[in-house]
Amino acid sequence: MTWFLSLSHILVFGLLNWGPAQAWGAGGPHVDHFFLVVMENEDPSMVMRSSFFRELKSQSVYFEQMTGETHPSQPNYIAMVAGDTHGVDNDKNVDLNVEHLGDLLERKGLDWRSYAEDLPGSCFLGAKNGVYARRHVPFLSFTNVTGNPARCAAKIRDFNDLERDLAAGQVPEFSFITPNNIHNGHDSSVQTTASWLADYLLPRLKSAPLQRTIVIITYDEGWRLGDNRIATFLVGEPLRPGLSIHKPANHYTLLRMIEDEFALGNLGRNDKDAPVVDEIWK
Questions:
Q1: Max CA pair span of the chain
Q2: DSSP string of 90-157?
Q3: How far is the C-alpha of 184 from the C-alpha of 231, rounded, in Å?
Q4: In the chain, which residues have pLDDT < 50?
Q5: Domain residue extents for the chain
Q6: DSSP 8-state secondary structure symbol assigned to residue 173
Q7: Is 81 helix (H, G, I), strand (E, B) or coil?
Q8: Could you write out the three-class secondary structure of 197-240?
Q9: How far apart are CA 201 and CA 91, in angstroms?
Q10: pLDDT tens digit sequence for 147-165
Q11: What gap in Å lies between CA 60 and CA 216, rounded to an integer?
Q12: What per-residue string of b and e applies to 239-254 under the rule 16 or more CB within 10 Å gives b?
C-alpha cells in the first residue's frame, strides 16, 4: 500500500478523529492521553512540500512560529521534557540529576512511557545501535531513571511494547515516541516520515481503544542556518481542526500545555513562563 492510499484512508474515513469526548477520567478536562512524536532536522518549508503534511495541517492545530531551542539535536530533546537544556550543547551521552516531566506525572498519580523504535534491549544505555540513537530518547539522560533499574525497565520500552499497549488500550497518560533514524527523517527524507506516519503510526493510534487523545508531531530542530523554525502539528478530537497558531512558540510551549492539562504544576524552568495556548480547544 502506498502512503498516498493510506493518506486517503486517514482523511476520508476520519482516522485522525477519535471518538467523542467522555467524562473526565484519569486525565485532564480535555485529554486522557498525549503522544509526543519527534521527527528530525527539517525546515517547515520542506515539510510542507509533502501533500501528506499539507493535508495533515488542514486537520490539525498547527504552529506557524514554532522554533527549536538550539542545535544540535540532544539539547532540544532534553528541553522538551525537562524545561531547559541544562547546559547540554552536544549529542554525547549525558547524565543529569534533574527533575523532568515523568516525575511530575508520577507525583500526580499518572503514568508515562518512552517508546523507542529499535531499542536494542531493556534500558540500553549505549549511544547508538544501528538506526537507534540514545540522544533521541531524553529520559535516558536522567539519573533518576537510569539509576533505578526497575523504573528504567518499566518506562523505557520498544515498539513491540507500543503495539501491544495500543492493542490493549493500556497506554499511559503521556507517551514519548522516538522513531528510528530512518523513520524520523534523520537519514532519509520528508516523504519517508510521511509514509511512516500514514502507514504505521496514525492507523495504530486510531485503532487503539482510546478516547480523548492528542498526538503531537514535532521536530527537534530546523536547519542550522536561519531561525531554527520547525513544523508542529497537534492532532485529535478535542482540538479545533485547521487552526493556525501565529504566536511565537517552542518546545516549552508543548511542555506547559501538557502540564496545564493534567494540573501537574511545573518544573520552575522555561516551562513556567511559556506561552499558554488555550485557544486550541473546541
A1: 47
A2: SSS---B----HHHHHHHTT--EEEEETT--STT--SSEETTEEGGG-GGGGBHHHHT-HHHHHHHEE
A3: 13
A4: 1-15, 18-25
A5: 3-7+35-205+219-224+251-280
A6: S
A7: helix
A8: HHHHHHHHHHHCCCCCEEEEEEECCCCCCCCCECCCEEECCCEC
A9: 26
A10: 999 999 999 999 999 999 9
A11: 10
A12: bebebebeeebbbbbb
Segment 229-276, tens digit of pLDDT: 999 999 999 999 999 999 999 999 999 999 999 999 999 999 999 999
The C-alpha cell 488542514 sits at 58
Of 156, 103, 151, the C-alpha closest to 262 is: 103
Residue found under cell 492528542? 214
H or E stretch covering 58: helix 51-58
Angle value at C-alpha 264, between 231 and 211, nearest 5 degrees: 65
Tell me the Cα Rg of the chain: 17
- Write b or e for each residue in 59-82: b if 16 or more Cβ atoms lie within 10 A of its Cβ, otherwise e: bbbbbebbbbbebbbbbbbbbbbb
